[in-house]
Design brief:
about 45% helix; rod-shaped; alpha+beta; single chain
Length: about 160
């Protein structure tokens, strides 16, 4: 019985000694450096709905631009906003695309997308009065000429 009691006391002393040694070594170690800031940490990526913007030239609709955007926003900022940025982005995108006067129908791929994206970001942040949207990107941007659209509608009926 005395041997079992002695072994129990010995195990307790070894456990306490080991815990004390680990605690003193951890307290003396220099604190770890914080990890480098990551640009994408805390950002949420959100998709907008698709919008169809009519392109009018020569007093007639020439076709439609179908556009969908992705924007990045800080998660904490997004949670604090009373109005989400999506309707503002779509409104600004519609106005920007609709107001284009020199649209090249033969080469729609030459549309100045970087200027459109910069304008969207600036206009949204201006509406909020502070930088809310970090970046706006293209998810879809297609031009459908009116003659192609009519054929598609007729085929589906």
């Amino acid at each position: 019985m005395i041997k079992i009691l002695g072994i129990g006391i010995w195990v307790c002393l070894v456990t306490l000694g080991t815990g004390y040694a680990v605690a003193t070594m951890a307290a003396g170690a220099p604190p770890e450096a914080p990890p480098p800031a990551n640009y994408f940490e805390g950002l949420d990526y959100k998709k907008t709905d698709t919008i169809a913007v009519p392109i009018i030239a020569e007093n007639a609709i020439q076709g439609y631009v179908l556009a969908r955007f992705v924007y990045t926003i800080d998660g904490k900022t997004a949670a604090a906003l009373a109005v989400p940025p999506e309707p503002i982005i779509l409104d600004q995108a519609f106005k920007s695309v609709y107001s284009v006067t020199n649209f090249d129908f033969k080469n729609p791929e030459r549309y100045d997308l970087p200027a459109l994206l910069a304008e969207l970001k600036d206009n949204v942040n201006t509406k909020y009065g502070k930088p809310v949207v970090e970046d706006v990107m293209i998810d879809q941007f297609d031009f459908l000429p009116k003659n192609q659209l009519g054929g598609e509608v007729l085929k589906n009926k």
